[in-house]
Amino acid sequence: MNQLTRRCTSGVWCITAVALLLVAVAPSPQVAGAQPDGDRRTRGGDPYPLLTCPVSGKKLGSMAEPVIHSYKGREVRFCCRGCIPRFVQNAAEYLAKLDAAIVKLQRPSYPTNQCIVMGDALECDDCKPIDLVHGNRLVRVCCKKCARKFKASPARYLAILNQVIIKSQRAKYPRDTCVVSGEKLGSMGKPFEVVLANRLVRLCCKGCVKRLRRESLKYLAELGKPVAPARRSHAPHQHGGKHDH
Predict the structure, then answer these.
(1) What pLDDT is stored for residue 230 in this prediction?
(2) Same domain, 36 and 92
(3) Which end of the chain, C or N, has fewer beta carbons within 10 A?
């Protein structure tokens, strides 16, 4: 550094030296919309719920350890880093395909037959339910008006959905041990309850949440196939106001 300073006796040398120093310390560029691996501060919602890369279609883990990134707060997993720029450049297209795959995966076992916004039936003679995907998770509402309300306050309505899931699935929970650690539920205090992919997961402690989210597909599979609630007989809507279908 002293030699470099001594050489900065002319304007040309000083400008060159400063430019070289700026290049040396400049951070490496990142893909727009994506977060570095391991940066969970901006990730929200459920972990990525599919077994394949949304860009290449290849099975995750078939090439190397999957690359986990956050796109605008939503976790997406890729087979390799090369797929990230392609995803970002055509995000609307890939997100639409991802959402369709999540709806197909989660709709058969969706945990309630009622709209979480207004409480109306999702299946009836004049029903036209709407499937939304929020943070890799399916949410079903009865009409466009309720869809707008959900998008305005997703945390509020997801909390309602979580309570419905916990209440309906706790009594018939298929295991008496933690799906992550194998410890007996209740042996370390009150079981810690998490909702992933609209399913209740009961853990021995909060410390198991990180492993559960990292390998959610593995642990959800160990719970067995989810069971959809019994369908109620068709009934008309009970909205106080007019539906906005």
Answers:
(1) 61
(2) yes
(3) N
Range of the domain at 45: 32-107
Asked whether residue 160 falls in the same domain as residue 175, the answer is: no
Domain presence at residue 1: no
Count of domains for the chain: 3
Q: Where does the pLDDT of residue 187 fall: very low under 50, low under 70, confident under 90, or very high at 90 and above? A: very high
Same domain, 125 and 161: yes
pLDDT in tens, 150-168: 999 999 999 999 999 999 9
Classified as helix, coil or strand, 46 is coil
Q: Which two tokens stand for residue 164?
A: 């419905």
pLDDT higher than 70, residue 215: yes
